[in-house]
Design a protein that fits this description.
The chain is α+β, with helices and mostly antiparallel strands. It is 37% helix and 9% strand. The radius of gyration is 46 Å and the shape is elongated.
Length: 597
């Protein structure tokens, strides 16, 4: 059988194992070798069979002959190695010769003779003095690394990776061919570097370092950040806000300012942002577009690293991504409040900045970003993590691959403060099984265009007032008049119709609905409005429940109750009438009348 690694152009070994056959014939798919060297193990095996002393068989150990061919120099050479030592040091041979004996095979290796001689010395180093052990240098470490990876010599592979990690800059200068390193070797080599160590490697021709930066980007995208490699945050949770366009991570999304419409004030008086994730954005397309812009894997890594690491500025009091280190907004001139003091005026609470004309406020409860120019942030270091991030940012900034150019500052808005639109009250989710009830609006039937009896009487009474005679035709005017009457049908002596002055006929005053207590009305009028509000609310609740359950009897009962409710007087009059009816049914009133007579 013939086994080859397929890398004949690489400086690594390319062994070919040929199996001998006892009859000289060949089976399908097998190559035969009739060389004298391949037959030597068979003769030695026959001699050992006729040996009368079995103990000598244990003392004798088969020597494996390896044919090495150097195709570049066009020379060949044979090497011998004990079978046990060869199998224990090179894991490739036990794998390809499973269930067979190495002395029955012919082994041919295509590689540099000096490299294979170095490998044989490393395999037999336990039998050599320590001064004769082979050593690694920048010139031979790459072919030895590839050979050790192919022959599965794990201890030697680790030694080569450690040497490359320590002296990669020298290896890049000394080695002419680094394309022979496969993805497995590059991945294991990149795992030994930190971003700061890789930043110190110089590869002017970009032969191996860009591949290491790509592996570093993959490590940055892992869900769990590796702090030992300089990754204190992960790029896996990065997203783009569809409202403000900023790139954020879930850990700092609530601290970075969004548009005022997406911000609110919590119960501690802090501004909390509610960013909206852009569903059309993904990290893969973002990296591809950013690479087209930067044209360097090193610059791309540091820009992505700056996107997912955030710090806090003590000057502008905001959290910012590291790549925006020079984006601290400020005004070069001090604000002027209502002119200089020479004019005899006192400075007021509002003014403007002379540098850009933006409006300024002396007392700001909510402080936010404001400024027409940019400068470097003043980082507030709170722990070792912030200190490490700042040190890495300074090192990357020296290479000119981290900080981004600040955007051009837009013109100030038309006199509106930046906090316009921030929600001061917390958003409360609606509770209950019923939908939203519009109880502030009067309940009217769809088929009927006339008002109820009580509303009609209120409209007739309100028509006597000359000040509001223009509004009699409208239904809301009747409801405004209705709120000034007491529950017994008469006008309250403490309440009077509210006088409204209209600038235009289209704008009408909002009637007190009864939900809230009006300070401009009497207590009796507020109580009447509150009773009417509760009646409308209960009617809507009953109608909604009857609609959900689908019971017609409930709707008929509700209509009958509606007709009985619309009588002269308020709720107390109806209760008194019901009380009298209950007394009549028991004969209490008739007995009391006879006793008085």
């Amino acid at each position: 059988m013939a086994v080859s690694d397929g890398h004949h152009k690489s400086p690594a070994v390319s062994p070919t194992v040929l199996e001998n056959s006892s009859d000289g014939g060949s089976s399908t798919g097998r190559r035969l070798s009739r060389s004298s060297d391949s037959l030597a193990p068979s003769k030695a095996r026959r001699k050992s069979l006729v040996s009368p002393i079995p103990g000598e068989l244990l003392k004798q150990e088969a020597e494996i002959v390896i044919h090495v061919c150097d195709e570049v120099k066009n020379i060949s050479r044979d090497f011998t190695c004990p079978q046990k030592l060869l199998v224990s040091k090179m894991g490739y041979f036990p794998e390809v010769t499973a269930g067979q004996r190495l002395e029955d095979m012919d082994i041919s290796v295509h590689c540099d003779i000096q490299i294979f001689e170095w490998l044989m010395k490393w395999v037999k180093r336990d039998t050599l003095p320590q001064g004769e052990w082979p050593t690694l240098d920048p010139f031979n470490v790459i072919p030895i690394l590839v050979s050790a990876s192919f022959l599965q010599m794990e201890p030697l592979l680790l030694d080569c990776l450690s040497f490359c990690h320590a002296r990669l800059s020298d290896i890049v200068k000394a080695s002419a061919n680094l394309s022979c390193l496969n993805e497995g070797i590059v991945t294991r080599l990149a795992a030994m570097f930190t971003n700061l160590e890789l930043e110190g490697v110089r590869d002017k021709k970009d032969r191996v370092v860009p591949r290491l930066w790509t592996k570093m980007i993959q490590s940055l995208c892992e869900p769990e950040p590796q702090a030992l490699r300089g990754h204190f945050a992960s790029l896996a949770g990065l997203f783009r806000c569809s409202r403000c366009g900023r790139f954020l991570t879930p850990a700092v999304a609530s601290y970075v300012f969004c548009l005022p419409q997406n911000m609110r004030v919590n119960r501690w008086g802090q501004i909390v942002s509610q960013h909206t994730r852009d569903t059309n954005w993904n990290i893969t397309n973002f990296i591809a577009a950013l690479y087209k812009e930067l044209r360097s894997w090193r610059k791309l890594y540091w820009r992505l690293w700056g996107h997912c690491h955030f710090l806090y500025c003590a000057t502008c009091e905001t959290h910012f991504p590291v790549y925006q280190m020079n984006w601290c907004q400020y005004h070069p001139d001090q604000a002027q409040f209502l002119g200089p003091a020479v004019e005899g005026r006192t400075a007021g609470p509002a003014g403007r900045f002379p540098c850009c004309g933006q409006q300024a406020y002396r007392y700001e409860t909510l402080t936010g970003p404001s400024g027409c120019q940019y400068r470097e942030h003043t980082v507030q270091i709170e722990n070792d993590r912030d200190r490490s991030i700042l040190q890495l940012a300074q090192v990357a900034a020296e290479g000119g691959c981290l900080f981004d150019v600040a955007l051009v500052k837009n013109h100030p808005q038309n006199g509106e403060p930046w906090w316009t639109g921030i929600a001061l009250l917390p958003h409360r989710s609606r509770q209950g099984l019923l939908p939203t009830l519009h109880v502030d609006e009067p309940v009217t039937s769809k088929g009927s265009k006339k008002c109820t009896t009580r509303q009609t009487s209120m409209m007739l009474d309100s028509s006597s007032d000359t000040e509001s005679s223009d509004n009699v035709k409208h239904h809301r005017s009747a409801l405004v008049r209705q709120s000034s009457y007491s529950s017994d049908g008469g006008e309250s002596e403490y309440s009077s119709p509210r006088q409204y002055r209209y600038r235009s006929t289209k704008r009408r005053p909002k009637m007190p609905s009864g939900r809230y207590w009006s300070g401009e009305m009497s207590a009796r009028s507020n109580q009447d409005n509150q009773r009417e509000f509760e009646e409308r609310a209960m009617k809507q609740v009953i109608a909604m429940l009857c609609k959900k359950t689908g019971s017609d009897s409930g709707q008929q009962h509700h209509q009958m109750q509606q007709q009985s409710y619309h009588q002269q007087g308020g709720t107390y009059v109806r209760l008194e009438a019901e009380w009298r009816e209950s007394l009549k049914s028991r004969g209490v009133i008739s007995t009391k009348g006879k006793a008085q007579k």
